[in-house]
Write a structure and sequence with these properties.
10 strands; homodimer; alpha/beta
Amino acid sequence: MSRNRKAVRVAVDAMGGDYAPQEIVKGAILALKEGGLEIGLVGAPDIIETELTKHDIHHLPLRSIRADEVIEEDEHPAFAVYRKPNASIVVATKMLKSGEADAVVSAGATGATVVSATQFVGTIKGMDRPTIGGPITGFAHDTVMMDCGANVDCRPHQLLSFAAVGVIYARKFFHIDNPKVALLNVGAEEGKGNELVRESYPLLQKSGLNFIGNIEGYDVLSGKANVIVCDGFVGNILSKFYESMGDYAGQWIRKKWKKYPLSDFGEKLINELSSLTKMSQEESMGGALLWGIDGVVMGMHGNSQAPQVAKMILKAKDVVNADVVGSLKVEMARISKVSQRR
Amino acid sequence: MSRNRKAVRVAVDAMGGDYAPQEIVKGAILALKEGGLEIGLVGAPDIIETELTKHDIHHLPLRSIRADEVIEEDEHPAFAVYRKPNASIVVATKMLKSGEADAVVSAGATGATVVSATQFVGTIKGMDRPTIGGPITGFAHDTVMMDCGANVDCRPHQLLSFAAVGVIYARKFFHIDNPKVALLNVGAEEGKGNELVRESYPLLQKSGLNFIGNIEGYDVLSGKANVIVCDGFVGNILSKFYESMGDYAGQWIRKKWKKYPLSDFGEKLINELSSLTKMSQEESMGGALLWGIDGVVMGMHGNSQAPQVAKMILKAKDVVNADVVGSLKVEMARISKVSQRR
């Protein structure tokens, strides 16, 4: 891609997702209209060209990049990435590595995106594997939970790295200088919990982060901590449980309300409650980022359509402009230095 | 205690809890009025006698049993049980072991109750340690979660035993013959999850229990499973998170409602919502039982007062009459037999 000063260059996997390439191409064009972007659509050139003829792309900084293969949702990620060096996600990721792109966005198979990013771009020093997480929306404010499911068996130094990621998240997207970090645990006192959190506690204590100790399940939504650190097994179950809560509360209220006429206000309340607890990637700044990769790689749901694709591309731009990855590298290096002091 | 045929003989720790002995003695007398019980109040005789003089206990099957020591909340449980052989909880537990009592109820330090029960009564074959858990009330029905915090680092055979406990719970208290058992996990497919659940899956499959596979966080409240099996770390965090939910939802609704006059109905709704998600031991049949102990030992909150004490004693009676412990022993033996077949 030609370098237009300040424009963020995004390599978009045009072949990944349930509605590829139509909705991906449409989304890319939508995003470009906001400005500050250059987009490379990665995929089969003839298919992409056919899509592009449907739109007025005159003067838009858009081009297509050849990639003749696609990795499907049901393929084994590692094998697929190995056997398909010309897969759209692989080509896009390599553009990030070579400096031809500033970010990658894909609605394709998440596993393949993770493998490809880890293999061709690599992780930041101190991070074994990428982590995913995001803000707890709804009843809570300025709270981010890391990890939400990428790492189900963790070691203590991983939890430390999740804390660093959460701190960068809170600084960049909540604009909190010194976010409060807590370990999710079964009790408030030091020494409580399973082996993992007991061993993680002292690492967090000497990390130089604003570590406030353990918090219990009661306090996830209380705002006591801006960054809630947990392994991905707990984070995944808790976030999905929370996502389901609005619907169950709404159903319950509707049932209770049966005897009374449900006013417009009541209907509105229930609908809002149902969507409130969804920890949507789409609504989340940087929630879809593969945190820990030494570059900006954003995954999104396979069922994403043009508006979601556009949103994600614009988020990738913000993540690049906020230098999220550079800040995380600095933070990880600082923690590593502090941790080596005894 | 003299054996009155069919009466359940409960040894009540008269010295344990924030309001001991006054509220404990009062609660015992309340419970006795329901019938079917004989109670031994275990503690310092003079203190108990002083309390008893305040009440009309004529003809009530109540006596006091001497125990000159008390284990305090802040003592190390194992040391305290070792150093205080005449502590009220120790004496009460030994009465269970010797057959002088059918059940023990205590509002004293939980740790000491667990250590005392494990040491002097022992666990059922196949259970390493006692487990605690209980029904998920509120938005869910006929759903019990095991373990809720007693075992934070688990091995697969422990998760299997939690499943057996949950099945007995559902049979005895939900009256479901063949309860559906699920493993709480990050994905529905076999092979998903952390090491613990991946290794537990095949054990549950060949257990002969009605194992329906994995369920995700979304489905905890859906009723898909009657028995949700998880380690105590996850169970504790999830149940506390759930307990807090009603309050946060209530606060949110109240805020939304600000512009409108909050009707009596609205106030009622919010109050009900707030208490709805509390997984209270008090409301739970057998939720306070130390499951896995080879006898009926019920713990309760230190702040329990007479009505709660009475409730718990009556629950102990129900647990004895339903032969919960005997049924669990049979189930554990059956699972052990099935599991040894290859």
